[in-house]
Amino acid sequence: SRYEDAGIYLGNLDDFVLEQGETPVVVEKEPLEDEVVEALDAKVKKLSEVRPDFHAAYLLAKSTLRRGEIQRAKWDWIQMKKGQPHIVMSADQKGKRPTAIPLDPSIYAALQKWYKLTEDKEYILPENGWSGERCGYFMKELDKWLRNEGGLKTDHTFHEVRAHTLHTVREKYGLEVAAAVGRHSEGGGVTVRHYTGKKKIPADFNLN
C-alpha cells in the first residue's frame, strides 16, 4: 500500500473498521451576547468621529456581509426596493444566487454619511491590501481594534458580528429566513434539527 511504501505500517484494521463508533456530539456555537454587541455598537459609533471607515465596515458586517464581501462591496449594491434600502448581491457573489438583504434604515443613513466623506464612489471601502484581499491591511487594522479596544475575545471578529445578526434573524423569523439572508444552504446542519421558519423574507423584516 502507499502507507507501507512510505514506511508506515498500520497493522490489521479490520476490527477497527467494523467497530461501532459513537455518534459525535454536535454543539451549537453560542452567539455573542446582546449586551456585548450593544457595548461594541456604542464604541464603534464613537470611533466613527475619527475613523468613519471603521464604522462603515462594521455596519456592513452587522448587515451580514462576510469579510470578503465587505472588501468587495460597491455603492451600487445599495438599492431601494419598495421604499426600503437593500444590499443587492448578484449571483456571482458567494452563495451562488442573487440576494436582496433588507438594510436597517439607521445603517443606511450612516453609510450615506460615509459616502459623502470618501473619495471612492465605486467601492464602499478604499483599496488597501493585496491580490485576493482588496482591503487586507485595513481589515487587519480593524480586526485588531475590535479585539483590543472593542473587547471581542475571538480571532473571527467579523464573523462573530455577522453571526449575531443572523442569530437574531433566526430567532425572530426562523431558520429559512436566516439562511436566505446569510446566503446559506437551506438544508443540513445542526440548525435544521432545532429551528424551523418561513421560506421567504417577510415584508416586515428588519435586521434590528
Rg over C-alpha atoms, rounded to the nearest angstrom: 21 Å
Put simply, the count of helices is 10
Please state the overall shape, judged from the principal axes of the Cα atoms.
Answer: globular
- Main sheet: strand order: 1-2-3
Write down how many β-strands occur, each being a DSSP E stretch of 2 or more residues.
3
Distance between the termini: 57 Å
What string, H for helix and E for strand, traces the elements in order?
Answer: HHHHHEEEHHHHH
Q: What does this entry look like structurally?
A:
The protein is mostly helical and 208 residues long. Helix content is 46%, strand content 7%. The chain has ten helices and three strands, in the order H-H-H-H-H-E-E-E-H-H-H-H-H. It has helices at residues 2-5, 14-18, 34-47, 52-62, 67-72, 105-117, 136-148, 157-173, 175-182, 190-194; strands spanning 78-81, 84-89, 99-102. It has a three-stranded antiparallel β-sheet, with no helix packed on it. It is globular and about 70 Å long.
Keywords:
single chain, mainly alpha, 10 helices
Write the layout of secondary structure elements.
Layout: H1 2-5, H2 14-18, H3 34-47, H4 52-62, H5 67-72, E1 78-81, E2 84-89, E3 99-102, H6 105-117, H7 136-148, H8 157-173, H9 175-182, H10 190-194
A few lines on this structure:
By secondary structure, the protein is mainly alpha-helical.
